Amino acid sequence: MPRNIKKQSKMAGLPPGTLIHIGEKNPGKTKITLLTYDQDHYEKKILNTIQECFIYKDTPQIKWINIDGLQDVGLIQQLDEHFGIHPLVLEDILNTGQRPKIENFENYLFIVLKMIYLSPQGNDIVSEQVSLIVGQNICISFQEKEGDVFDPVRKRLEENKGRIRKLGVDYLAYALLDAIVDNYYVVLEKFAEDMEILDETLMNGSEITTARKIHKLKRVMIDLRKQIWPLREIIGSLQRGESKLIKKTTVLYLRDIYDHIIQVMDNIDTSRDMLSGMHDVYLSSISNKMNEIMKTLTIFAAIFIPLTFVAGIYGMNFEFMPELKWRWGYLAVLGLMSGIGVGLIVYFKKKKWF
Amino acid sequence: MPRNIKKQSKMAGLPPGTLIHIGEKNPGKTKITLLTYDQDHYEKKILNTIQECFIYKDTPQIKWINIDGLQDVGLIQQLDEHFGIHPLVLEDILNTGQRPKIENFENYLFIVLKMIYLSPQGNDIVSEQVSLIVGQNICISFQEKEGDVFDPVRKRLEENKGRIRKLGVDYLAYALLDAIVDNYYVVLEKFAEDMEILDETLMNGSEITTARKIHKLKRVMIDLRKQIWPLREIIGSLQRGESKLIKKTTVLYLRDIYDHIIQVMDNIDTSRDMLSGMHDVYLSSISNKMNEIMKTLTIFAAIFIPLTFVAGIYGMNFEFMPELKWRWGYLAVLGLMSGIGVGLIVYFKKKKWF
Amino acid sequence: MPRNIKKQSKMAGLPPGTLIHIGEKNPGKTKITLLTYDQDHYEKKILNTIQECFIYKDTPQIKWINIDGLQDVGLIQQLDEHFGIHPLVLEDILNTGQRPKIENFENYLFIVLKMIYLSPQGNDIVSEQVSLIVGQNICISFQEKEGDVFDPVRKRLEENKGRIRKLGVDYLAYALLDAIVDNYYVVLEKFAEDMEILDETLMNGSEITTARKIHKLKRVMIDLRKQIWPLREIIGSLQRGESKLIKKTTVLYLRDIYDHIIQVMDNIDTSRDMLSGMHDVYLSSISNKMNEIMKTLTIFAAIFIPLTFVAGIYGMNFEFMPELKWRWGYLAVLGLMSGIGVGLIVYFKKKKWF
Amino acid sequence: MPRNIKKQSKMAGLPPGTLIHIGEKNPGKTKITLLTYDQDHYEKKILNTIQECFIYKDTPQIKWINIDGLQDVGLIQQLDEHFGIHPLVLEDILNTGQRPKIENFENYLFIVLKMIYLSPQGNDIVSEQVSLIVGQNICISFQEKEGDVFDPVRKRLEENKGRIRKLGVDYLAYALLDAIVDNYYVVLEKFAEDMEILDETLMNGSEITTARKIHKLKRVMIDLRKQIWPLREIIGSLQRGESKLIKKTTVLYLRDIYDHIIQVMDNIDTSRDMLSGMHDVYLSSISNKMNEIMKTLTIFAAIFIPLTFVAGIYGMNFEFMPELKWRWGYLAVLGLMSGIGVGLIVYFKKKKWF
Amino acid sequence: MPRNIKKQSKMAGLPPGTLIHIGEKNPGKTKITLLTYDQDHYEKKILNTIQECFIYKDTPQIKWINIDGLQDVGLIQQLDEHFGIHPLVLEDILNTGQRPKIENFENYLFIVLKMIYLSPQGNDIVSEQVSLIVGQNICISFQEKEGDVFDPVRKRLEENKGRIRKLGVDYLAYALLDAIVDNYYVVLEKFAEDMEILDETLMNGSEITTARKIHKLKRVMIDLRKQIWPLREIIGSLQRGESKLIKKTTVLYLRDIYDHIIQVMDNIDTSRDMLSGMHDVYLSSISNKMNEIMKTLTIFAAIFIPLTFVAGIYGMNFEFMPELKWRWGYLAVLGLMSGIGVGLIVYFKKKKWF
Q: What's D152-196 look like in SS3?
């Protein structure tokens, strides 16, 4: 969408691999959280500098480094030097206008995708880029700002629920992806509600704002689709075992995510069809309203114009108009008028105009 | 559709393999029916507990366990332990928002699809998830609630009609799938009737409810399509003999189901085209009605407004208006008015306005 | 289409291979015609019972058994037993709601397709299911009722025209398919005429029936497309030599049919585009007509309403209205009115409203 | 398109390979032109009978036989016998309703395509079928009538320009195809002009003929697309070197044609998009015009109807209407009327109605 | 688009490889710039004749020859002779109506694509053809006129920024392609602004020019899409390492461009969807406006026509109309009229007409 374009156009002309943060600036310090765990052990630390985590590099435990905030380019560059991440990958992490993708390097996997959630006020949909680097016993996740959908994963790690502490870093990566995809449903539920409200509005009136709302929802839907669709490919690639970092036992779980993505896509497509249908109904309702207005006008005009004409005749000033002298002339004309009026009303009733 | 979304969003954050029933709760006990049969033998039992069927595990006879109702999560978990079903499969069985799919495990096949039938009142279309686990000599079917389309299969088993008792568990699975697919035709027939009624309504009037009805039918059609379409892939996969549980002799029968699914899809597509056509005709009929209304108005206005004007002239109070004094002035004016009126009527007749 | 659905839904619940005739019942006896021929010999017999043809089973001559009428299920069952046809094939023959398809069995080919022709009155399009079983030296064709498009083939056989008597049973099958496909052109020609007539109607008026007719034609077109489209696949499969019954020399002829089917499909697609265009023109013409009506109304109203107002002024009964006393007051007002009228007419002329 | 259908339906029932000329009959003799050339030699002859060219059969020089007119079926049959062309190919040559295609025979290539050019008057688009048979050192081209786009090729041959005389018969075939494809640009240029004119018409008015013209152009576009699209496949097939008659050096040139066809298709698609846009603008302009008409009506009616009502009040004949007696009553009412009139005008001005 | 067609149709009939400049003529001399560089060395020269660069042919340094202006056909022909470029390639360079493409020759790569940038005034989008010939240590770029988007690349070369001087000619080619693709974002940003402005216009009014502007933007979008889309294929082909001139290290950078192109395409598609939505809203707003106009008319007419009729009754001149004599007749009628008026206003208020 245009938003991304604006960001991206700033980079025109820079050499590749230049690290520039492209995206919303959010002030405040980058927050680094380190989780180390194995079957028996679990530790959570909030680090002040990225260097603090380098000492864990070769420990056998699984390390999950989560970085909230991309504004500190220097910090991210140090990761490059320490863990040997390709500069183009770092560029992609910093540039938040990425399309979801997966890249397979010799000793790590790079996955970038969109975390979509409702704003704390619950009215807006927030799309935040999440990048994952999955290496041997280490997973580094990058987020644009604090606040994410990973809390259930953290809780499972802490409370040693399920199998997460028993399985490797690939399962952790799966759990993170799963948390992101599961949250899409929450967003879609909000949509479903918005659509229901819109559908009811449609029943009652047909103001121009309705058309705008339908198209706004449609636009968000298209946007969402574009952000989610490439995920299918990503999970597919992981499933096919193209990376040696993904163990066989995890593949089955990935198939589950895959099914969910297909379901989400199905939902989005159905919603688009429904919005198209609502637009059609909206147009029909405008036309119907117009018909109703025109009927009202026609009934009024068609009844009173002839009557006024009759009155006009007897308002003429001719000297020789015998009817004017008749005793019952006036009543006769009133009768005639009533006759015409009733006749026309009956006629329109028959035509089912009212 | 939104309905599924609401269900699914409850699961966000739970570890994979968590068994939670997602779907309509229907109170009442889960009903377990066990059918054991071979060529010479047929037995039907209604079980109180799932354990009762475990003793049959290694008998050579074919066992069909049918479970109506998914609310008893514990019961389903026991199956897991006893028959060695993967927890993700059980999760899928309980989550009734599944997209139809087939999964090939080492010693069983897992098929999930939608049974679609008319509600007993015959007005609504009910979509119920059916899961099949097909193993060596055993077939377990899971349904959301009592009442299904399998009665003809049960009757054939009981009365030993056709070849069903002579052939293996793969043929039983085929028979169940066939019963489900055959019932799609019944649903489509109901649709065809609804569409015929709608088409007639369209002939007579063009109320806004017609547009709504067209779009409602369209929506159900899209929904149906989404539930049936993946079946094609499922049967295709079975046909290609990707599972060793499916014998060669059964493949030919599966081809038959495959043809039926294609036919059903063809039908749905044709119906959608017809509904689109009906919407177009509907819009045309609104426009035509508007034309008719406007013609009525125009004819009335165009005839009487000039006449009223003429009457207005001779209603003026000028002192020197010689016509007012004429002996035949009044009649002449009446004649003039008739002339104008008839002239305009002829003009509109010529334009074929009425 | 709905028609098929109604038929098909009767079969729900029956075991596969159950022989039930699904389709229009046409009373009267099934007609069996046997043609035996080789290069030097040609014989035509009308049989009373199907058994009469069994004696020819192993003769070296080519046998073409044509069966008109599917109501005699028993007769068709005998073919099964005698020639070893699979029961599912017989079921497909009897069920006239088939989608065109080809099935390759070990010693015979089964082809089912639609023969489309104009009814003898020439107004309706009749679609009849034709099934072909092509075996070693034998071809059995099944039709729903008497009357077909095979007469030119019969004549060529009888008069030994072309190469038909010199070549094998695969060439006979080709000739029959070719006759069916060639006849599609005749049907399309009828369509082209209908469309031309409709196009002319469109030039003259824009009644609601036109919209209906356009959509009816479109529907028939969609229907036709669905019946013909699968043929492409069938001929393609024959061409690729997937059956050993088709000799190399015949493949070139099949390529010819293939080209024809593509041409027919092209035609249907073009016709659909044309019908869409006609619908657009229709909608435009309704809007234009509305504009014309509104112009008429506006011109009448805009001219006479101001004039009537002027007349109204001088119809007021104020005591002190000096104009009323003027000698030329009446004429002056008439002049003023003419001026207003002419001015407005000129104004509308300039706006090119008439 | 319907035109072809009419032709084709005549063939229904004829045995395959029957030589019948299907297409416009153009009287006059078939014109046979023989060109023989090699690097040093060039000769042009107009032949009276086809036999005259048979003597050249085995000369090492390259022979291009061009046949204008297909009405002489006998002549074309002799080619069959002499050069060993398959009867189905000859049938295709004579039947001018062919879809462009290429067929690869053992010792010759058969290409059929459409030559599209402007009629000499420059107003109509003429589509003529050209068939090419390319053999060892011989190229036979068949055209429906005299007049073609090959003159530049002939000139290059005669004047020994470029490499045409140095290269083989495959290069000649390429040159002919190139001439045909190059001419598509000329036709498209004419289209572009027609569309520009139409676009200007659209700016000025919105008569129903505009809608018709847009759809006529659209139809021609669809038609053109269908005639050109299969060429892509043909050239693609030639390029892939599927025929041993095409030398490697020629393949590069064919790639050039391929690019041109893609460009032509791009153009046609863009034009279709533009025509769709024009139709949308047309519909908008009708609606806008309607709005304008209705505004005019509403302004007139809304201003004068209330004024007429005021005049009507003082035209009542009540005995006790004090205003009528007032000295300034008349002027006061005139003032009141002016006030109402000006007020309404200001109101509509504010609403930006005029 | 039509523009290209006009150019291209000039070439009809010319032998392939004829060098003719097709495109806008821009007077002035062709400008040749030679850049030679390696890790330690950088030199920039403006050449008067193309021959001056031939002496560098076999130096180990990387040479980038940039040619601005295609009008000097002779100059380009010399390149052919000296560097052994195929004449068809030169023809493609000169013909500025090319579709983006890549061609793989034995010792050089030929890439043609579109450089799209805003005109210096910033209002128009300029599309200029850029051709690249990438050989061993040499890159020749051809542009239609002076002024390009390569300045950042030149600066990086001059200032030895990034890795550009360390890497080979394939990286230079990548840098040029990257500069072109990066600039697409700048163009799209301009579009996004235009669309925002249009969207605001849409909020306020609904003039016919809005429809035109929407369609103009749509057209430019379609145009842009067509010019950018083939790039995907080009970069894809380079990435797959189909040319030995592209080193492995560069492939990763190409993947980056590939992602950008996909992003640009996504953007264009989203913009098209948004424009379609805007057109729909536009149509809705026209219909709404019409409804509003009709309501105004109907309210005025429906209120005053009955009142005028009442006034008309008491304007009749019957001798026996008792009401006329009543003391309070006039006031009673005025009261009646107010009653009717208020009643109708209340009625329309209830209908929410104003």
A: HHHHHHHCCCCCCCCCCHHHHHHHHHHHHHHHHHHHHHHHHHHHH
The two beta strands, A31-37 and C62-68, are: unpaired
Closest to D5 in 3D by CA, of C193, C148, C202: C193
Identify the closest residue of chain E to D279 by CA–CA distance.
E215
Q: In angstroms, what CA-CA distances link D139 with D45, D83, D131, D171, D238? A: 15, 11, 10, 11, 16
Q: Which residues of C touch B255 (CB under 8 A)?
A: 88, 103
Gap from C219 CA to chain D (nearest CA, Å):
18
DSSP D148: -
Question: Is the separation of the CB atoms in C89 and C133 below 8 Å?
Answer: yes
Give per-residue pLDDT as tens, D12-45. Answer: 667 777 777 777 766 677 889 999 998 888 999 9
Residue bearing the bigger pLDDT, C21 or A34: A34
Q: How far is CA E193 from CA B320, C147, E187, E190, E217, in A?
A: 71, 68, 10, 5, 12
User: Which pair of structure tokens corresponds to residue E337?
Assistant: 């009229």
- Percent pLDDT > 90 in chain A is 19
Judged by DSSP in three states, E273 sits in: helix
**Which two tokens mark B241?**
């003999």
Nearest-neighbour CA in chain E from A49: distance (Å): 28
Structure-token pair, residue B72? 């008893």
Alpha-carbon gap, residue A264 to C237, rounded angstroms? 38
Neighbour order of strands in the sheet with D31-37: D42-47, D31-37, D62-68, D138-143, D125-134, D109-118, D101-104
Mean pLDDT of A87-104: 86
- Give the pLDDT confidence of D238-276 residue by residue, as tens digits: 888 778 888 888 888 888 899 889 889 988 988 888 898
Q: Compute the distance between CA of residue C1 and CA of residue B192 in angstroms, rounded to an integer.
A: 9
Residues of chain D neighbouring E293 (CB-CB closer than 8 A) = 291, 294-295, 298, 353
CB A198 within 8 A of CB A217: yes
| Whether B8 contacts A264, CB under 8 Å | no
One-letter amino acid at A326 equals: W
B135, B150 contact by CB (below 8 A) = no
A182-to-A176, A254, A271, B312 alpha-carbon distances in Å? 10, 13, 18, 77
Q: Does E159 touch chain D (CB under 8 A)?
A: no
Coarse DSSP helix, strand, coil percentages of chain C, rounded to the nearest 5 percent: 55, 15, 30
Cα B202–chain centre separation = 21
Residue D121 vs residues C142, C180, D23, D188, E11: alpha-carbon distances, Å: 55, 42, 22, 16, 22
Average pLDDT over residues A244-273: 88
Mutate to test the interface with B, among C94, C210, C297, C338 (most CBs of B within 10 A): C297
Q: What is the CA radius of gyration of chain A?
A: 34
Identify the DSSP state of E52: G
* Partner residue facing D290 (CB), from C271, C291, C306: C291
Residue C93 backbone dihedrals phi, psi, to 5 degrees: -65, -40
Look up residue B17 and give its amino acid.
Answer: G
CA E220, chain centre distance (Å): 4
Nearest C-alpha neighbor of C179 from the set C155, C159, C203 = C155
| Rounded distance between C-alpha atoms, residue D59 and residue A51, angstroms | 86
CB B2 within 8 A of CB A275: no
Buried b (16+ CB within 10 A) or exposed e, D74-113: ebbbebeeebebeebbbbbbbbbbbbbbbbebeebbbbbb
C332 in contact with B at a CB cutoff of 8 Å?
no
Nearest-Cα residue of chain E relative to residue A307 = E309
